[in-house]
Design a protein that fits this description.
Layout lengths: L1 H29 L3 H32 L2 H19 L11 H29 L2
Length: 128
């Protein structure tokens, strides 16, 4: 059982870090030339769509593996990545305040990833 959970948790963490790297690139695009912003955000949104499905699949597996605390952390991670991804589209419109909303969503995603990682580590250390 420990090995199955370890694999499920590791897969979530690996895929979430891949997604986090793409979000890091979004932050870089926001500080780059305005002329290229829309195209760069569109490209990164496409890459995030590709990364999204495998991440969500691995999160669902972690939720099924449990236990409750880790399942709740995985669910919170799922919600935070959905929120961060949804916050990307308004960036293409360059509306006032959308960058701040995206940055808040991205920070929450990282916070939930850290929470899940700590919870998974604790769960695995308690299984002999």
């Amino acid at each position: 059982m420990r090995e199955l959970r370890r694999e499920a948790y590791a897969d979530v963490i690996e895929r979430a870090h891949e997604t986090a790297e793409l979000h890091f690139q979004v932050k870089g695009a926001l500080t780059g030339p305005v002329e290229q912003l829309v195209q760069r955000i569109e490209n990164l949104r496409g890459e995030l769509r590709v990364a999204f499905e495998p991440l969500m699949r691995s999160i669902c597996l972690a939720i099924l593996e449990g236990p409750t605390r880790e399942a709740e952390a995985a669910e919170a991670l799922s919600k935070s990545v959905i929120t961060a991804n949804r916050a990307l589209h308004p960036l293409e419109q360059s509306d006032e305040g959308v960058q701040a909303a995206y940055e808040l969503a991205e920070v929450e995603f990282h916070r939930q990833l850290e929470r899940f990682t700590a919870s998974a580590r604790d769960a695995l250390s308690s299984i002999q």
